[in-house]
Specification:
This protein is mainly α and 236 residues long. The chain has 8 helices and no strands. The two termini are 19 Å apart. 25% of the residues are buried.
Length: 236
């Protein structure tokens, strides 16, 4: 009974730790937003109202978040990073920081604090183009890093030889990083489609329902990526 209670308490502790993250709450709201967009398919009704109100509420979570990517932009790149990947990474930081900064002006416009609605809408479109560009840069960075990891894993496999590679800690760590980057690549590709859809660059092909489906799937990936690590069980 005590062991079961301790396990339940530990599991609830993980849930509390997860929900205490502003980023996690934002991604849950994002899943609700794009799930509603998928259901509404751009048609007036309850689902569209949920989409719009959740979209506005999420902007509060992102206030001053542009500072994170601004800090990453001026921080040195890890040693050994090829110049093309370093430039792509910095471009991603610059574009994402710009998107988050302009998104604050959009929020001010929608709340009525910023009175120039036309300019707010224009800045909103520019912000979405920046987000689409940052997603493209992220995709290219992940492809490049996956290539480097693949070459590193093959080299390590040759060094290990006939031994069981899954017992090698370095091999398992690199394989884990490869899986994480593959998931990040999929998410970046989905985000690119979402930005494309929100900009309505091809409204007949990338409909609100398609945008909602990709946004919902991308949000679930984000929620998964933010999950806290499960504490390892103690062995006696």
């Amino acid at each position: 009974m005590t062991s079961s209670l301790e396990t339940t308490r530990a599991e609830l502790g993980l849930v509390v730790a997860y929900l205490n993250k502003a980023e996690a709450r934002d991604k849950i709201c994002r899943a609700i937003q794009y799930g509603s967009k998928f259901l509404s398919d751009g048609q007036p009704g309850t689902a569209q109202n949920v989409d719009k109100t959740t979209s506005l509420a999420r902007k509060v979570f992102r206030l001053f978040k542009f500072v994170n990517d601004l800090h990453a932009l001026i921080s040195p790149v890890p040693k050994g990073t090829p110049l093309p990947l370093a430039l792509l990474g910095k471009s991603k930081n610059a574009l994402l920081s710009t998107f988050l900064f302009l998104d604050q002006i959009v929020w001010l416009g929608r709340t009525g604090i910023y009175k120039n609605k036309e300019r707010a809408e224009l800045l909103g479109r520019i912000a979405l183009f920046c987000w689409m560009g940052s997603s493209a840069c992220t995709s290219l960075v992940e492809i490049g890093e996956l290539g480097r990891l693949s070459a590193s894993i093959k080299k390590l496999e040759k060094e290990i030889g006939n031994k069981d590679k899954h017992h090698n800690e370095e091999y398992r760590a690199k394989l884990k990083r490869s899986n994480e980057r593959s998931l990040a690549l999929i998410k970046a590709g989905m985000d690119f489609v979402v930005a494309f859809g929100l900009l309505q660059l091809a409204p007949k092909k990338v409909t609100p329902r398609v945008t909602g489906a990709f946004g919902f799937a991308s949000s679930l990936i984000s929620c998964y990526q933010l999950l806290p690590s499960h504490p390892k069980s103690k062995t006696v």
